[in-house]
Write a structure and sequence with these properties.
The protein is an alpha/beta fold. It has one domain: UDP-N-acetylmuramoyl-L-alanine:D-glutamate ligase, CATH 3.40.1190. The strands form two sheets. A five-stranded parallel β-sheet has the order 5-1-8-9-10, with helices on both faces. A five-stranded mixed β-sheet has the order 3-7-6-2-4. The longest helix is centred in the last third of the chain and has 18 residues. It is globular, with a radius of gyration of 17 Å.
Length: about 220
């Protein structure tokens, strides 16, 4: 089958809020410096109200990778779940504006579009608090076989592995990719993903993954 995409990524569809912060703010809010912590919507709103003025931009680990690849001229696609709300529209617009294919349908009647609150200290370290919202509603029904089968590399975001429905989506995508002779790549994303799902990840990596991304931790 003809390859329409160099990379098709599957991950959390998140809008990033990036703001400067000092060490006192990080400590005062009880944040885990340099890590990503999951928060509920109420805590997200509370922290957002206390953050310094920032920049809001579409993001998420795999979506950021797609943006970078698109800027280098790669043909890209992204599969992820947003809500039928203003931030969801912003996310979809931003991806399509950079030339990425984004066929995913928005969630209606569920949680709001995900957002990640990123506090950056003067040394460049980023501390993230993430409300996952609609992004974790991604299921195997959201896998577009035509996208997976026509991508040279299928890139999976480890953060999304935290949701059971998303793990089923990963398995479906991997099966489609393998049947079409495509390469499967996985990023482990964060230490907490490995700590929570080590056995499942080891099984998935050994049976499905061709290219694994990880940092020293």
């Amino acid at each position: 089958m003809t390859e329409l995409f160099d990379v098709a990524a599957i991950g959390n569809a998140i809008v990033d809020v990036i703001a400067p912060a000092d060490e006192g703010f990080i400590a005062g809010e009880g944040l885990s410096r340099g890590a990503m912590t999951l928060v509920d919507e109420a805590r997200g709103r509370e922290l957002y109200a206390r953050m310094a003025p920032g920049v809001e931009t579409s993001g998420g680990s795999a979506a950021n990778t797609v943006a970078g690849l698109s800027s280098l001229g790669a043909r890209t696609a992204f599969l992820g779940k947003v809500a039928d709300d203003q931030l969801g529209e912003v996310f979809a617009h931003d991806l399509r504006a950079i030339g990425a294919h984004f066929p995913s349908q928005p969630l209606r009647g569920g949680p709001a579009t995900a957002r990640c609150l990123v506090n950056v200290t003067p040394d460049g370290q980023r501390t993230m608090c993430t409300f996952l919202g609609a992004s974790v509603e991604f299921t195997d029904d959201d896998i577009d076989p035509a996208v997976i089968e026509q991508a040279s590399i299928v890139y999976l975001e480890g953060y999304l592995f935290d949701a059971e429905a998303a793990r089923r989506a990963f398995a479906k995508a991997a099966g489609l990719a393998r049947a079409s002779g495509r390469m499967i790549a996985l990023t482990l994303s964060d230490g907490f993903v490995v700590e929570r799902h080590r056995a499942a990840l080891l099984g998935f990596i050994s049976s499905q993954v061709d290219l694994l991304f990880a940092n020293e931790a």
